[in-house]
Write a structure and sequence with these properties.
Blueprint: H1 10-40, E1 47-50, E2 54-58, H2 62-82, E3 96-100, H3 104-115, E4 123-126, E5 133-136, H4 146-165, H5 173-187, H6 193-207, H7 229-242, H8 246-254, H9 267-274, H10 278-291
Parallel strand pairs: 2-3, 3-5
Antiparallel strand pairs: 1-2, 4-5
């Protein structure tokens, strides 16, 4: 006759709870907070979709919300690799909640109710705490194509990751944005039309043309605001994090952490921490843009 079903041992029950319980409880609590925030922010209708690392709350059809979640999941491992995160490292607690609000009025009401502030920007990021989140929407008075908005969501996620990983560092905006755009671009595929267009423009901007000289690397931190600043920052950070500079990138980024000697470190301290001199870094970066080596 068949053997009676075996009851799980006490040890198995304890181990099962230890391995799955806390993470599941945190995820459930974060989802409850996300849904409560939607009500608090007076968001009338939103799809709520969970992935391995995100809780997506979006005022778009559920199928598109799932597509957004899938796009963000492609960015996550690329950014982790660029940041050289150890297996046990996480950029935030549990899952990051991503609110994508397509109506500017709802975006304004939500940020005021949940973040406690009004903003003229199209996004707000808060990765410290037990309920990390970012909220974004269309620019005031503007409506970008959906593919662009999905890409920008990836940029925001990568930016949140570098901020979460280097919590104590005073990272300049060009470092965060440059890294985030490089990660999101690479996540979309290095043969994609978006990445190809970026590389073509970066080559023109970094190397210069017959009618326009190359933009100096120092323009990123000396107060200048060149027209192609974003492209320069993206290209430089791609070199630093994903290119030949990757061996020293952790020391470079860590160089922005305050110390007893320097309360607000800048590029000079970051370059020194990485063992780089500005002229040599600039030459190596331009060579990489030109040759890929």
């Amino acid at each position: 006759m068949p053997s009676p079903p075996r009851c799980p041992s006490a040890l198995a029950l304890v181990l099962g709870f230890a391995l799955a319980g806390p993470a599941d409880e945190l995820s459930d609590r974060q989802r409850q907070v996300a849904e409560a925030n939607l009500k608090k922010g007076e968001v009338k209708k939103a799809a709520v979709v969970e992935t391995d690392h995100f809780i997506v709350c979006a005022t778009i059809p559920e199928a598109k919300a799932k597509a957004l979640g899938a796009a963000l999941e492609k960015v996550y491992p690329v950014a982790r690799k660029g940041l050289q995160m150890d297996a046990g490292d996480t950029p935030w607690k549990g899952k990051l909640t991503v609110y994508y609000l397509t109506d500017r009025k709802e975006f304004n009401l939500f940020t005021l109710a949940v973040a406690g502030e009004r903003t003229r920007e199209s996004s707000h990021v808060a990765v410290r705490g037990d309920e990390p989140y970012l909220v974004y929407g269309p620019d005031p008075g503007g409506k970008a194509p959906e593919a662009d908005l999905f890409f920008e969501a990836g940029v925001l996620v990568a930016s949140a990751m570098i901020q979460g990983h280097y919590r104590t560092a005073e990272l300049p905006e060009w470092v965060k944005t440059g890294f985030a755009r490089a990660a999101a671009l690479r996540a979309g595929g290095t043969t994609s039309p978006r990445y190809t267009a970026y590389k073509t423009k970066a080559r023109r901007v970094v190397l210069g043309t017959s009618g326009k000289p190359p933009i100096p690397i120092a323009s990123l931190w000396n107060g200048e605001s060149p027209d192609d600043r974003e492209t320069v920052a993206t290209s430089l950070m791609e070199y630093v994090v994903f290119g030949p500079g990757a061996k020293e990138s952790a020391r470079f980024l860590g160089g922005f952490r305050p110390s007893e000697a320097i309360a607000t470190p800048g590029p000079a301290q970051a370059l020194e921490a990485a063992g780089w001199k500005e002229p040599q870094l600039e030459a190596a970066w331009r060579k990489w843009v030109q040759t890929g080596k």
